[in-house]
From TrEMBL:
Keyword terms: Lyase
Keyword Lyase listed: yes
Organism placement in taxonomy: Bacteria, Pseudomonadati, Pseudomonadota, Alphaproteobacteria, Hyphomicrobiales
Full protein name: Uroporphyrinogen-III synthase
Entry GO MF terms: uroporphyrinogen-III synthase activity
Annotated organism of origin: Aquibium pacificus
Domain Tetrapyrrole biosynthesis uroporphyrinogen III synthase: 15-230
Domain of life: Bacteria
Amino acid sequence: MARVLVTRPEPGASVTAKRLRALGHEAIVLPLSEIRALDPVLPDPSAIDAVAATSASAFRHLKPECAATFRQKACFTVGARTAQAAGQAGFADVRSSDADASALAAMLVATLPAKSRILYLCGCVRRPEFEAGVEAGGMLCLPVEIYDTTFSPPEATVTESMSAGPPDIVLVYSARTAEVLRDMMSHPDFASSLRNARFLCLSEAVARGLGTLVEGRTYWSDEPDEEALFALLSRP
């Protein structure tokens, strides 16, 4: 079995590590980011036609009393993990795209009437594709930042994590994390510890964040969820 470096933030990192160990792998937990909840001002529910989110973190960090005011709205998500988080937050009508944020925007445009008003539960750090797609489809996108993400661990944490030996596989969950890894690999010691590792990414967009440093060793899942990502673990 493999030594697998998990770069996603907590609490997801520990959940992923537990899954890996159950499969017989050795998990190295090295979160390259930290998520903190914000205290946003949400619009009146009567001004919203539907809710959307592209990350499960939006629902994990949404206060229950805030979620309660929107639970009767249709909720559109990307991937099974985000859909599950929406259901756990109390949303009953959850519709999920198994592709990416652009595909989710296309689903909304195809499903809802023109000029619908979409409450987009999101993070401060995000890509523009969803908002652009919704607005290009003639709808109003109202982004509300539910959480913020800071990146890069202390150097001591990196050294400690690698002390038992280099990983065989690196799991990468976001484009920004991929960019952090790319920057970290500009340091010879860190690059050396990853010289033989395979990089398994949640999507092609995430893989692009690594640049050309790991060409020939980068793979991405067909669907942006952890089930599809784990399916790559057995890939030679």
